[in-house]
Each structure stands twice: as C-alpha cells, then as structure tokens.
Amino acid sequence: AQSVTQLGSHVSVSEGALVLLRCNYSSSVPPYLFWYVQYPNQGLQLLLKYTTGATLVKGINGFEAEFKKSETSFHLTKPSAHMSDAAEYFCAVSRPGAGNNRKLIWGLGTSLAVNP
Amino acid sequence: GAGVSQSPSNKVTEKGKDVELRCDPISGHTALYWYRQSLGQGLEFLIYFQGNSAPDKSGLPSDRFSAERTGGSVSTLTIQRTQQEDSAVYLCASSRGLAGNTQYFGPGTRLTVL
C-alpha cells in the first residue's frame, strides 16, 4: 500500500529565507508525485508534479521539487519565501501505469507561516 | 474555461438526515474523484469514476455513502442518516483520466452535522 509522510505539520520561516517542506513516500513501485497548495479559504491548486523524465521539477510561484528514488523523497523548496506563500501544502502520490485508479494518497499537510 | 464546481458550498444538517452533494467536472474530463478533508484525518479518497467503467468505491467509509455519475458528467455524493463524524469538507476533482494527469479540484462543500 502507498503512504505519504510529511515531516513537520507546521513550518515557520522568515520572509526571504529558504523554504523546505519534506515529503517521503512508501510505494512498491515508483509513484507519480504531486505537491498541491491550499491558500486560506481557497481550493487545492497544483504546484508541481513528477511523472517521468527529469527528476528536478519546477512549478508555479518559484517552487521546485526533486524526486530522489534512493531516499523515497520529494521535498519541496523555494529559495526565498514571500509573505504570499503562507498556505497549507500537501504532498500526494498516485500509482503509475495504465488501468489503475489514479486516486491520490495524501500526506497530512504542512502549514507554512512566513514571518516579516 | 470553467473549473470544477460544487454545490452547495456549505451545508448544515441535523444528525440522521440525508444530504446530497453535487459536482460539475471540467467539460471533457473522463475521470472524477471524491475526497474528504477533515481535521485530524487529512484528505482521504472516497470514490473514483472513469468513463463508463464501474466506479471504484473502495474509499467509501460506510454503506451510508453512495455516489453516482450521470451521463459521464455531473456527479452526486449522497450521505444517508448523517452522523457527526461525517462533518468535513467534501472535495470533488476531475482529470483527463490518463496516468499522471493533473486532478483539478473544486472549492468543496463544507458539511456540518449537528
């Protein structure tokens, strides 16, 4: 069975500092990997995803993540935090390949606070 | 184009009542998902529709929960005899249905069972 672990339910950074949100997965096969963001009182929005190809993927708003198979990780980073990045971030996985339910298995989320 | 829409945005009901939640997916998306987001439980998968295939109901928490998708488009999630533990935000998502396709989420329906 697949599972996702997000280390740190709350992360606080200063404006301009590096953002690092951790995500580790457990899966019998390398899954597809996703990061979604949920701004206050808004719906879930895709930040970035990894399916195949280059393991470093870039997303919206300056975020990027690197798939490391050996570490079963897909950590999310941003070099310089902005106040507008304050939100809830969710890591999710789904099974690759045809014929499978593409349901997303979710981590519990990390709430990011950005301090002025 | 229009995104995924859900109605109602908020629903308050009394314990024991039935509720229906509606989802309008993005036009042309063959896959439709229902998830539930609740405090302490995070996001959990409920049910998946793909084209004309039989739905995957493996995530439904009890037989009080059911869903249908008419004409390959609109979906309705029904909860019978609601319980307080059903209180959550119910999210609908749709995608093109191929492996790795992005799931686009609606704004959700916040259900409160008194």
The biggest beta sheet of chain B is recorded as:
6 strands, mixed
- Summarize the main sheet of chain A: 6 strands, mixed
Strand percent estimate of chain B:
over 45%
Oligomer class = heterodimer
Class derived from helix and strand content of chain A: mainly beta
Question: What is the H/E order of chain A?
Answer: EEEEEEEEEEEE
* Helix vs. strand class of chain B: mainly beta
Please tell me about this protein's structure.
The complex is a heterodimer of chains A (116) and B (114). Chain A has no helices and twelve strands. With 116 residues, chain A is mainly beta. In chain A, strand 8 and strand 9 form a beta hairpin. The relative contact order of chain A is 0.33. The model of chain A has no long low-confidence stretch (mean pLDDT 92). With 114 residues, chain B is an all-beta fold. Chain B is 0% helix and 48% strand. In chain B, a hairpin with an 8-residue loop joins strand 8 (88-95) and strand 9. Chain B starts with a strand and ends with a strand. The interface between A and B is medium-sized, with 27 and 26 residues.
Summarize this, please?
The complex is a heterodimer of chains A (116) and B (114). Chain A has strands at 3-5, 10-14, 19-21, 24-26, 32-38, 44-50, 56-58, 64-68, 73-78, 87-94, 105-106, 110-115.
Question: How is the secondary structure organized here?
Answer:
The complex is a heterodimer of chains A (116) and B (114).
Chain A: E1 3-5, E2 10-14, E3 19-21, E4 24-26, E5 32-38, E6 44-50, E7 56-58, E8 64-68, E9 73-78, E10 87-94, E11 105-106, E12 110-115
Parallel strand pairs in A: 2-12
Antiparallel strand pairs in A: 1-4, 3-9, 5-6, 5-10, 7-8, 8-9, 10-11, 10-12
Chain B: E1 5-7, E2 10-13, E3 19-24, E4 31-38, E5 42-50, E6 65-69, E7 75-79, E8 88-95, E9 104-105, E10 109-113
Parallel strand pairs in B: 2-10
Antiparallel strand pairs in B: 1-3, 3-7, 4-5, 4-8, 6-7, 8-9, 8-10
